[in-house]
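User: I'm putting together a small comparison set for a docking exercise, and I want a reference complex before I start. The sequence is below, and the ligand is manganese (II) ion. Could you produce the 3D structure with the ligand included, as structure tokens?
Assistant: Of course. I'll restate your input first, then give the structure tokens for the complex.
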Amino acid sequence: DSSSMSSVLKYMKANRVAPNVEYSGVAKGKNVFVIHLESFQQFLIDYKWDGQEVTPNINKLYHNQNTLSFDNFFNQVGQGKTADAELMLENSLFGLPEGAAMVTQGTTNTFQAAPSILNQHGYTTASFHGDVPSFWNRDNTYKSWGYNYFFSSQYFKEGKGYNVGYGLKDKIFMQDSAQYIEQLPQPFYAKLITVTNHYPYLLDKQNQSIAKTDTGDDTVDGYVQTAKYLDQALGEFLIWLQKTGLDKNSMLVLYGDHYGISGNHKKAVAKLLNRDKFTDFDNAQFQKVPFMVHMPGLKGGVNHTYGGEIDVLPTLLNLLGVKNEDTIQFGSDLLAPNRNQTVAFRNGDFVTPEYTKVGSTYYDTTNGKILTHLTDVQKKQLAAIGKHVTEELSLSDKVITGDLLRFYTPKGFERTDKTMISYKVKDA
Ligand code: GP9
Ligand code: MN
């Protein structure tokens, strides 16, 4: 209701952080590629196995001087996994404590999502994914978000051995997406959701080009193989971008959506990371995923700010020079000086540059040690951080469960008319 909305607005007013003006509009009018790296964790960056880099193309991009890379960027998903990541990235709203908001609210809710916002700035918006359109209710949610096009499995060629796990293999998917990308009016915002690097990390012999790891844990050991395959698919895609010249007028955004290896595989992970143990603190650190923005001429470097998926939309809108002052977004520009570096996890745990909370245990983030004797000052700080985390999560939940955005329209915002959008949706 409207009283919930006023508490949300009050929160926004108190917590809004001005973006980094040095980066405002540096990508104005550029095409945007958002590449969703399925289950891709930060530890894979520069990771070596079997005498080779697992992901050389992603590593190269990570270290490129025209890439803004982040090494303290966390996934913040809950049960909705990929769906939560998509929701956060394009709305700066948290996933729900249970289930996936794309499924439960995606069809009916009012959103002020990236595609709608960018449509108004002359962008054509399209999502690409090699699974059936109904998965995570994408076919309906994307209309609510304003996606002009949704290229799902319905649009891609089929063949023997083309699919593995949840959909089209990444190399075929990226290759086959090209014909549609080429036809998009520019500037466009195109999101490509890969899927091969998904549990249980299956891949045909022909496409395996690195040995499995040797932890002895079957749910873990194929991970490097599919991660490498994803990296190669991206490498081929980057070459295509160069061939078309699209690399020159496009901004490339890459992110990992969530962990590939869950906290239930401590022994195997310790072995992978060459450590003797893997604690709950290590597991919190293990939730880091890549976030990179690449563009010719962009002032890059590895940025150490603590942030996460909730912060992507304000970051991108600033780079694109889109005014973003009265929207309902729970994140902040990752490049903003003096931003709040508290990273909230869906279960109320959090990480900051100083503190890490896992359940009822607090750690010193700088060294991973358990804080056993909290000083009064620390107690106060932790209580304040905890309160902030609870507040942002519960207010975001109210926005979604109460469909509060239908009561509030940012200045000048116009939602893309859903009735004008249609995708091929014959389901398998
Ligand atoms: C399926 C894919 C997988 O279409 O996006 O989602 P996940 O299992 O990672 O949430
Ligand atoms: Mn996923």
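The chain has a mean pLDDT of 97. Residues 38-39, 81-82, 257-258 surround manganese (II) ion (ligand 2) (CB under 6 Å).
User: Thanks, that's exactly what I needed.
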